[in-house]
Amino acid sequence: IPHGELAAEIAHAIIQAFAEPFPLDGTPLSLTSSIGISIFPDDGEQVEALIGHADRAMYAAKGEGRNTFRFFNPRMHFAASRRVQEENDLRRAFEQGHLELHYQPRRRIESGKIVAVEALLRWRHPERGLLPAASFMRLAEETGLAIPMGEWVIVTACRQLAAWQRSGTSARIGVNLSRKQFLHPQLEAIATAALRNAGVDPGCLELEVAEETVMENAGRSAERLRRLGEIGVRISVDEFGTGRSSLPWLKRLPIRSVKVDRAFVSDIGADEASAVIQAVIDLSHRLRLEVVAQGVETEAQLTFLANHGCDEAQGRYIGAPVPARELAPFLT
What we know:
The protein is of the alpha/beta class.
């Protein structure tokens, strides 16, 4: 390629080509792409250097949301070194037991009873304190750590639920599945083994899958959800309202509930957000799906949800995520 402008045009054309849906076994599939570009001789004169710099630029494109391209610049050396350090820190944290689960309660709105908890992954970083999963899960997915970490979460959550059940609680436990974990071919086997080893009924485990992940490949997701349904676990669509799915389509799958995205809950009072929530609740109930509202932060929000028939609520107004020992008294 004779110059950078042409490289940019080609990169843009490639991204556009992959964005167009194409059929795979009869199912439309769309892909995102991230492209890195290095220029000879400005970015290096050896093939190895040019490839390495293009690779760093590609990771920069991924870090900016994917589906874009970036040219290499020298500042990426620092970013690459920092990324390697963060990867090593995360891997060491996982191996040395510095990851932990906190649990956030979900309340049945009508009765006020805590009927479920959501297991939320945290990293107790020696310098940065307690970090939420959102701050490191992308790194975990890019480095292959998402699968073993996800398995650890399912196993640990099932063990904790078994301990609570021995104390008399009947609450369910919910676990978020990352994109890669949802697509992993051994997911059913991992969940089945965790439930069996903990002695927990499958119906007490709720696996939460983001709407965006489900709709990334509808045909493949439908098959995976059916296989999960066959082992008896509950399935919930998380962050509902942010993707392209429809409730009638979801009803054909073994889904028990939808979790309304917190963005709509936070805007309760605004006409559009309130109308969306009311519509989701009404249609979900007609399809015999339960509705969970996420991010409930105020009494006014909870009152609105109660008046419109929402089934369950989760958020800091209900209870913040806490270690298991702090939540136990509220489950009895």
